[in-house]
């Protein structure tokens, strides 16, 4: 299960730092991310909703105790220090329920700008957020920022 050691040595990139800069200049920034790497938090962003969870923690499925990445990386198969059960990474597995999706929809409905950055918009239900905004909050601007076009690019050009 944990055959890959998670070293935690990945660093935030220019995109992460840009969003942090927006916070630094006083903008209210809410980040909805499907990434599980924790880099938005590592960059210093304070309002991050990790929709697919995070690899920075793991939880015991038996007793519910949560452990940090340092604990998880101590052994090849990390087990709960309380009950001995093998830990589960705090991520949404394919086909699983997306964490905090209701909060995500509520937060974007309050926004005046949605930046959809580096996303294919292929994974439901998160891919519905830009279209929800267009229907429910037409005054909110949506900007799609990608290196290449997706099948949704034309739909989001207003």
Automatic annotation (TrEMBL):
Keywords: Metal-binding, NAD, Transferase, Zinc. It is an enzyme of class 2 (transferase). This is protein acetyllysine N-acetyltransferase. Residues 1-158 form the Deacetylase sirtuin-type domain. It comes from Parageobacillus toebii. SUPFAM superfamilies: DHS-like NAD/FAD-binding domain. Coiled coil: none annotated. One of its GO terms (molecular function) is histone deacetylase activity, NAD-dependent. The active site is at 52 (proton acceptor). Its EC number is 2.3.1.286. Zn(2+) binds at residues 60, 63, 80, 83. InterPro entries: DHS-like_NAD/FAD-binding_dom, NAD-dep_sirtuin_deacylases, Sirtuin, Ssirtuin_cat_dom. The keyword Transferase applies. The keyword Phosphoprotein does not apply.
């Amino acid at each position: 299960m944990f055959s890959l050691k998670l070293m935690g040595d990945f660093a935030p990139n220019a995109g992460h730092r840009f969003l942090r800069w927006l916070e630094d200049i006083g903008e209210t920034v809410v980040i909805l991310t499907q990434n599980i790497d924790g880099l938005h938090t590592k960059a210093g962003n304070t309002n991050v909703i990790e929709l697919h969870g995070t690899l920075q923690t793991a939880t015991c499925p038996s007793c519910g105790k949560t452990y940090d990445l340092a604990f998880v990386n101590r052994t090849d198969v990390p087990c709960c220090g309380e009950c001995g059960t093998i830990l589960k990474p705090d991520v949404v597995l394919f086909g699983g329920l997306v964490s905090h999706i209701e909060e995500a929809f509520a937060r974007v409905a309050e926004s005046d700008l949605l930046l959809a950055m580096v996303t294919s918009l292929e994974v439901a239900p998160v891919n519905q957020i830009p279209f929800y905004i267009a229907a429910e909050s037409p005054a909110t601007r949506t900007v799609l920022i990608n290196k290449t076009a997706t099948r949704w690019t034309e739909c989001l050009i207003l």
